[in-house]
Specification:
There is one protein chain. 27% of the residues lie in helices and 17% in strands. The chain folds into three domains: 75 residues, 2-Layer Sandwich (Alpha-Beta Plaits), CATH 3.30.70.20; 257 residues, FAD/NAD(P)-binding domain (3-Layer(bba) Sandwich); 126 residues, FAD/NAD(P)-binding domain. It is an alpha/beta fold and 565 residues long. β11 and β12 form a beta hairpin. The protein has a six-stranded mixed sheet, sandwiched between helices. The chain has a four-stranded parallel sheet with strand order 9-8-7-14, covered by helices on one side. Strands 10, 11, 12 and 13 form a four-stranded antiparallel sheet that branches.
Length: 565
């Protein structure tokens, strides 16, 4: 028995005999690996914090491998995704969001340049095989994730090339064909993936025949059919719907003659923005976008924001595109069957009888403008041929996040009524592949990620120095053509510098704050990783629950929870 006297004395190991943690009564610190908001907001399911952490240690190939565990096409999404992850980034509260899409693009291009192998192994010869209808981003992602999870994948594509709308509707200024081809070719070359071209559903194959031959069927046909458009029943005889006009231009490089005059584009998505810029670059006298949505600003609600890539909106304005927001076309002025003008009316939101707010026309705001061409870009829907029994109106509308329509049948991408982005289609492909694996194993659904989200108020940003976001060069307006990519690439040095700006929200930085500042030496630093993935463990025998480590943890990885006796 060690006895304490008023004079006290120092003997080897004597401090360990007095477990001062017995004084603790209200709280104790724990490690909680929360989700960063960039990860939560990513439609593809990327964990940006995880691959940025690897890049912070200059482990670029491992960072790419972590990224492609969710998204096998970073060179594509790094160019075309609207990147809601950047809007959600907690770094906004310090000095500006991370340039996530630029680093993502750099990693994708670097993997191609250096020939990094996808982190997958060939499936077993007797592995279950999944049939995938459509070789767009959703179908390609599904095939990749099937192989990653040990399944085989056989794709059936109606067109002579893979890529879907990535190839037929995205201008090279946003997505150069060389960059697209490189990633598609690498995915298709993976062992376990078979691509069948010119195989149209309803003509060459049916859903029933696929269900008989394969262990599961994933439907990713995209949305190829324009939604009907008219203004109070009036339709110009020379109507050119936006997506088809864009495809025709991509195929033939020409636009109708009246596209040289005053043009109005009616819509609010990326296709509408692409049409505006192509028509303007082709020599149109003026181009005006009419959208029911709002433009970015402090008074615009997130659910009211125009659904276009922010940098595309900025570039369109640079190029002289006029944008009239919160408005619609209320009347077509016709001369014979040809449109010569439109009446534009402002919109406002009002609550209906069910309490939901809807946009309604604001009487008294009408104005008439002369036009030579009106291009509707109000959305597309699934071509119904061969989908009888699965379609609900214009889309599939599954009632679960995995896209399950029936036993072993799943819908992914635009056709399932998702958010209409490449990243969302890629995320759908991953979720469907995971659900197939679970279903074949006799499980209901894959396990969900129940971790909490680390918001900005959970961080201690005093520990982060200000660092400007990497500036990315882009072509001057005078140098923008139909082929040249507008936004430039960043260098390895810039990518690594941008990685250092990551706040590592919800994850351990190994900064030593907890170990250094604990007044009771109750934090033990380990040489090897502890079971929770950090280099620290709490010795509760000596922790008094003061909360200092929680307060001084920069990332919110340490949190105080109620003491359990």
């Amino acid at each position: 028995m060690v006895q304490i006297t008023r004079g006290q004395w120092a003997g080897a190991g004597t401090s360990l005999d007095f477990k001062t943690g017995s004084w603790r009564s209200t709280q104790r610190p724990v490690h909680i690996h929360a989700k960063a908001p960039c990860h939560v907001s990513c439609p593809a399911g990327e964990d940006q914090q995880a691959w940025f952490a690897l890049l912070q240690e200059h482990r670029a190939e491992e960072a790419w491998a972590s990224l492609v565990n969710a998204n096998p096409m970073p060179g594509v999404t790094g160019r075309v995704c609207p990147h809601p992850c950047e809007t959600a980034c907690n770094r906004v509260q310090v000095d500006g969001a991370l340039a996530i899409h630029n680093v993502e693009r750099w990693l994708g291009d670097e993997a191609v340049r250096l020939g990094w192998d996808y982190p997958v192994v060939a499936p077993a010869d007797n592995a279950p095989t999944v049939a995938i209808v459509g070789a767009g981003p959703g179908g390609l992602s599904a095939a990749y994730h099937c192989v990653r999870l040990g399944l085989k994948a056989e794709i059936f594509e109606a067109l002579p090339e893979a890529g879907g709308l990535l190839r037929s509707a995205l201008p090279p200024t946003r997505l150069p064909r060389a960059a697209l081809d490189r990633e598609i070719d690498r995915i298709i070359a993976l062992p376990g993936i078979t691509l069948n071209l010119r195989q149209r559903l309803g003509r060459d194959i049916t859903i029933d025949s696929l269900r008989e031959r394969f262990d599961a069927v994933l439907l990713s046909p995209g949305c190829e059919l324009p939604k009907p458009w008219s203004v109070k029943g009036a339709v110009p005889a020379d109507l050119h719907e936006g997506l088809q006009l864009l495809r025709d231009f991509m195929d033939h490089g020409a636009l109708p003659d009246n596209a040289k005059g005053d043009v109005i584009v009616h819509g609010g998505g990326n296709t509408a923005m692409d049409i505006c810029r192509i028509v303007k670059r082709s020599g149109a006298k003026s181009v005006t976008l009419i959208t029911a949505s709002g433009l970015p600003g402090p008074n615009t609600a997130p659910d009211d924001l125009i659904n276009v890539v922010p940098r595309e909106l900025e570039e369109a304005r640079e190029e002289g595109i006029e944008i009239i927001d919160h408005a619609t076309v209320s009347r077509l002025i016709m001369k014979g069957s040809r449109v010569t003008g439109v009446e534009i009316i402002s919109l406002k939101k009002e609550s209906g009888k069910d309490g939901r707010k809807r946009r309604v026309e604001f009487e008294g705001t009408e104005r008439v403008v002369s036009v030579d061409m009106v291009v509707p870009c109000v959305g597309e829907q699934v071509e119904p041929e061969a989908f009888e029994g699965y379609l609900d109106g214009a889309y599939f509308w599954p009632d679960n996040i995995y896209g399950r329509m029936a036993p072993r049948v799943f819908a992914i991408g635009d056709a399932r009524g998702s958010r209409g982005t490449v990243a969302a289609a890629i995320g759908d492909g991953r979720l469907a592949a995971e659900a197939v694996v679970a279903e074949l194993a006799g499980e209901i659904d894959p396990p969900a990620d129940a971790r909490p989200t680390m918001e900005a108020d959970g961080l201690n940003t005093a520990y982060y120095a200000n660092a400007d976001r990497t500036r990315v060069l882009k072509l001057a307006v005078s140098e923008r053509t139909f082929e040249a990519e507008i936004e430039g690439a960043i260098s390895r040095t810039e990518a690594l510098a941008e990685a250092q700006r990551c706040l590592s929200c919800g994850n351990c930085l190994a900064c030593d704050n907890c170990w250094t500042m604990c007044p009771d030496n109750a934090v033990i630093k380990t040489t090897e990783l502890a079971t929770d993935g950090s280099h620290y463990v709490f010795d509760y025998d000596f922790c008094k629950g003061c909360g200092l480590c929680t307060q001084e943890c920069p990332t919110g990885y340490i949190q105080s929870v109620a003491e359990t006796n």
